[in-house]
Design goal:
By secondary structure, this protein is α/β, with parallel strands linked by helices. It has helices at about 20-30, 45-60, 75-85, 105-110, 130, 145-160, and strands at about 35-45, 65-70, 95, 120, 140. Strand 3 (about 95), helix 4 and strand 4 (about 120) form a beta-alpha-beta unit. The protein is globular and about 55 Å long.
């Protein structure tokens, strides 16, 4: 199982929503709420490359202005957020995401940098360790409604122990 569309083939199935779909949903929502200049803070690597490419496509598709894009190596979100903060003069929102296990520290980096824009994100935000972070309070992110998954997980637990 994967959410990487490049590996889907017979016998390899996509599980969950793709990162691209998350970007489309949250960017469309932001545009519908009047956001016009969207900056981005994204990790380097395969996941970040997919997200950055889709972010740029959605900027063009929705007729938005591309704010600054800051990429960072694993564990370097704090320095990247500080560098980005100085460039956010015209942005009205910040798209930010990271791998699931790094997103909580990325949220801390945003707070430490003093960034106070409308935050936009993906389903990697949908975990308690991230949702409790002050920086993401009021942020918008794309994720499925949790009750469907919780119901599935309970049935799976009962059946397969």
């Amino acid at each position: 199982f994967s959410n990487d569309t490049s590996v889907a083939q017979p016998g390899v199935y996509l599980l969950s929503f793709t990162p691209q779909t998350d970007v489309v949903r949250v960017m469309s929502f932001a545009a519908s709420r009047g956001k016009r200049t969207i900056a981005a803070l994204l990790p380097e690597g395969a996941y970040g490359n997919v997200i950055a490419a889709e972010w740029q496509q959605q900027i063009a598709r929705l007729g938005l202005n591309q704010g600054p894009l800051q990429r960072y190596a694993p564990g370097r979100a704090t320095e990247a957020a500080r560098a980005l903060a100085a460039q956010l003069t015209s942005a009205d929102s910040l798209f930010v995401t990271d791998q699931t296990d790094a997103m909580a520290s990325t949220a801390d980096a945003i707070a430490a940098a003093g960034i106070r824009l409308q935050l936009l994100g993906t389903g990697t935000w949908n975990q308690l360790s991230v949702l409790q972070k002050p920086a993401v309070q009021g942020g918008w992110f794309a994720a499925p409604e949790a009750s469907g998954f919780n119901s599935f997980a309970e049935r799976y637990r009962r059946r397969f122990n």
